[in-house]
Amino acid sequence: MIKKMTNGIKYWGQLFLLPIYWLSFLFPRSKNIWLFGSTFGRRFADNPRYAYLYVNQFKDDVAKLNKGKNIRGIWISHNKEVVRFLQEKGYEAYYNHSFKGMWYCLRGKVYIFDNYSKDISFWLSGGTKKINLWHGTATKKINQDNKFDYYRNPRNAWERFKTMPRRITDEKPHHYVLATSKQMAPILAGAFGTSLEHTLVVGHPRNDILLRGDMTDILNEDEKKTVTQLEEFRKSEKKIIFYTPTFRESETKFFDVIDLEKLNDFLATRDYIWCNKLHIKSKLKKRFEDIDLSNIFNIDADVDPATILPYCDFMVADYSSIYLDYMFLDRPAVAFPFDYEEYVTSSRECYFDYEEYMPEKKVYTQEELEQAIDNIFYVDDKLEARRKRRSFHFDEVDGESSHRLCESIINILEK
Question: In terms of pTM, does the model score above 0.70?
Answer without folding.
Answer: yes
